[in-house]
Each structure stands twice: as structure tokens, then as C-alpha cells.
TrEMBL record:
UniProt-listed Gene3D superfamilies: FAD/NAD(P)-binding domain, Glucose Oxidase, domain 3
Protein name: Glucose-methanol-choline oxidoreductase C-terminal domain-containing protein
Domain (Glucose-methanol-choline oxidoreductase C-terminal): residue spans on this chain: 85-226
Gene Ontology molecular function terms on file: flavin adenine dinucleotide binding; oxidoreductase activity, acting on CH-OH group of donors
Source species taxonomy: Eukaryota, Metazoa, Ecdysozoa, Arthropoda, Hexapoda
SUPFAM superfamilies named among the record's database cross-references: FAD-linked reductases, C-terminal domain, FAD/NAD(P)-binding domain
């Protein structure tokens, strides 16, 4: 990705590593039976197939000790992703000063089952690498020991737990810091009209209002929320003005 020849190949011919969208393939797997009462199966792991580079927050120390030995080889990264993590963090005020930064503690991997599930995802990847199709192309696991896990025996649960706790990123899908709920739910921040409780016309419309993650990327869910919220806000505005513009009658769902 950082090679000058790759840059030239992209600019001149539209080819090479720079044509990647960042994640070439994703898949979803269910390692549990889902919701017993509904007899349904919900994916709990997402598998992302992508390239890995230093821009993803890897320190120089870890990169040089773990990844750099593979620089001249064709490599691919399999990332097991938690779809419904059980670890819960918090966002709190530091003090009464409005200029103070908030205290943000996501408490990643604080629930043991999250670690167990990620290790289960690694075991799934190992089975995938061992398939006939993958062996035909010479696929093999990176057996370099990750820095900080040297005291653990490679390929044991304790090693992979250490690996998971050292090598985890968020995938940029945080939710839930402004939970939606009814008036009886003390942990909720906004009501079902997206309005912050105890305020007037202060709305929050983004991933933060989702109480829990969907079993996939939250993009489509957030777009749906935005569509709903736009109707709610337009309706409140129309009632506040006690009249509707002529265009609102024909092109919106606002009740006028």
C-alpha cells in the first residue's frame, strides 16, 4: 500500500493495492443457537477479510516484532468481529464545569464471554485455513508470537486470550451512549421521538440512541432512524407553527 509503485499503478492504470475498498469480503456466522424461545439463529460473529497496515493503530514496536517479517509475502487478515458484545462502558461528566472533557470508558473486553467468543472466532479461522481450497493456495497461519504474549504457549487458549487483549480494534461502530427508551426506563436518555428527556426540541439522531447493536453493521439501522426522526421533527415543527406549508402537504408524511 505504501510503495511508490503501487501509487503509480493506481494513478496511471487504475490497478494495484490502492483499488481496494479496504475490506474485500465479509461474512456472518452464528456460534450459538440464538434465542431459545424464538428458536431462531442470530449471527454473533462477523468475519472481515481485509489487508492490515500500520494506519490501523499498530505501534511501531508491535509492527516490527510481529508484522514486518511478512512484508515481502502475500498476506491477508481475517478479523473476527463481535456483533453483540456483552461488555458495557460508560460516558460520565467529569465535574460541573461545561468546558471539562467527559469521562469515556468503553470497558472493552471486560466481559469474559466477549473474549471467549473472539477466541472461538480465531479457531473458526484456523479451520477455514485448513480446508482443501485454502491449502491449494498455500495458506498458513502467522505463527510469529505477538509481543507481550511470549510467556504463553502458542496456540493455547491463554495465548489467544492474550492476543485478543493486545490486538483488538473497535471497527468504528460504537452505539448506545444516548439510549432510547420510555419514561419508565431510568437508563434511557431520549424518548421514542428522539427528544432528550426533560428538554424541549433537543433531538439526538445517530447510532448513540440504539440500546443494543444489530447483528450487522449499524449503517442501515441508522439510516432508518434518520428517516423516522425527520418525520417526527417535521411534524413537531408543523404543530408548533399551527400551520403547514403547501409543499409539506404533498411531499412529506407530516400530519397537517
Amino acid at each position: 500500500m505504501l510503495s511508490p509503485s503501487s501509487i503509480l499503478s493506481y494513478l496511471q492504470e487504475g490497478r494495484g493495492p490502492w483499488t481496494t475498498i479496504g475490506c474485500e469480503l465479509i461474512g456472518f456466522i452464528a456460534t450459538t443457537k440464538g434465542i431459545p424461545k424464538e428458536n431462531s439463529i442470530r449471527p454473533d460473529l462477523q468475519l472481515m477479510i481485509c489487508h492490515w497496515n500500520k494506519t490501523m493503530g499498530i505501534s511501531d514496536y508491535s509492527w516490527n516484532r510481529y508484522f514486518s517479517a511478512l512484508n515481502n509475502e502475500s498476506t491477508v487478515t481475517f478479523l473476527p468481529v463481535l456483533l453483540r458484545p456483552k461488555s458495557r462502558g460508560y460516558v460520565r461528566l467529569t465535574d460541573k464545569n461545561v468546558d471539562s472533557d467527559p469521562v469515556i470508558n468503553p470497558r472493552y473486553l471486560s466481559h469474559k464471554e466477549d473474549v471467549d467468543l473472539l477466541v472461538k472466532g480465531i479457531r473458526f479461522v484456523q479451520k477455514l485455513i485448513a480446508t482443501r481450497e485454502m491449502q491449494k493456495i498455500g495458506a498458513r497461519l502467522n505463527t510469529n508470537v505477538f509481543p507481550g504474549c511470549e510467556s504463553e504457549e502458542f496456540d493455547t487458549y491463554s495465548y489467544w486470550e492474550c492476543y485478543v487483549r493486545h490486538m483488538t480494534i473497535t471497527s468504528y461502530h460504537p452505539i448506545g451512549t444516548c439510549k432510547m427508551g420510555d419514561e419508565k426506563d431510568p437508563s434511557s436518555v431520549v424518548n421514542y421521538d428522539f427528544e432528550v428527556k426533560g428538554t424541549n426540541k433537543l433531538f439526538v439522531v445517530d447510532g448513540s440512541v440504539l440500546p443494543t447493536l444489530p447483528s450487522a453493521n449499524p449503517y442501515a439501522s441508522i439510516m432508518m432512524l434518520a428517516e423516522m426522526a425527520s418525520d417526527v421533527i417535521k411534524a413537531k415543527d408543523a404543530f408548533g407553527r399551527a400551520r403547514c406549508d403547501i409543499m409539506e402537504v404533498f411531499i412529506t408524511k407530516t400530519i397537517c
